[in-house]
Amino acid sequence: MTLPKRIIKETERLMADPAPGIQATPHEDNLRYFDVVMAGPAQSPFVGGSFKLELFLPEEYPMAPPKVRFLTKIYHPNIDKLGRICLDILKDKWSPALQIRTVLLSIQALLSAPNPDDPLANDVAEHYKTNERDAIETSKQWTMMYAA
Questions:
Q1: Residue 116: φ, ψ to 5°
Q2: Kind and range of the H or E element at 139?
Q3: What is the pTM of this model?
Q4: Is the pLDDT of residue 2 over 90?
Q5: How far apart (Å, rounded) are the C-alpha atoms in residues 11 and 24?
């Protein structure tokens, strides 16, 4: 299976110069499929956690966004129980100018800045809106339980 040069270049760059707190490793048998480990960002309820994600580059990449989801359970208004992520650049704001690295950094930023006004997990968003302190506490507990 031959990969487009762009994917090869991006993968090489990710390996040589990983984004801080993010490790993305392509599968040997399918180089479009990456195992991602993301550290919970400092000053976020997810600090101290190590989150597993999967990232897949569809045939249409870079014209279509990568498919990314959390495999580690996380209590976040923009990430649902299946690990799907509500992030504009993974949907309608995608641009071929963006890269795997940009996507992963954006997901990491989303952990630092949950947006309950554009939720994927409505119950979590409601919790964040009605009692943010308690919701953050739940996020911390989940991080310790599932991502430690």
A1: -70, -10
A2: helix 132-146
A3: 0.94
A4: no
A5: 9
Tokens 């993301």 belong to residue: 38
Domain of residue 87, CATH code: 3.10.110.10
Cα–Cα distance between 87 and 92 in angstroms, integer?
9
Task: Report residue 83: phi and psi, to 5°.
Answer: 85, 5
Catalytic residue IDs: 86
The token pair that represents 110 in the structure block: 């989303």
Q: Dump pLDDT digits (tens) for 45-64.
A: 999 999 999 999 999 999 99
Q: How confident is the model at residue 1 (pLDDT cuts 50, 70, 90)?
A: low
**Contact status, residue 46 vs residue 61, Cβ threshold 8 Å:** no
Domain that holds residue 111: 5-146
Structure tokens, 2: 């031959």
Helix (H) / strand (E) containing 36 = strand 33-39
Strands of the sheet with 22-26, listed across from one edge: 22-26, 33-39, 50-56, 67-70
- Number of structural domains (the chain) is 1
Pairing of strands 67-70, 50-56: antiparallel
Q: What are phi and psi of 17, to 5 degrees?
A: -140, 75
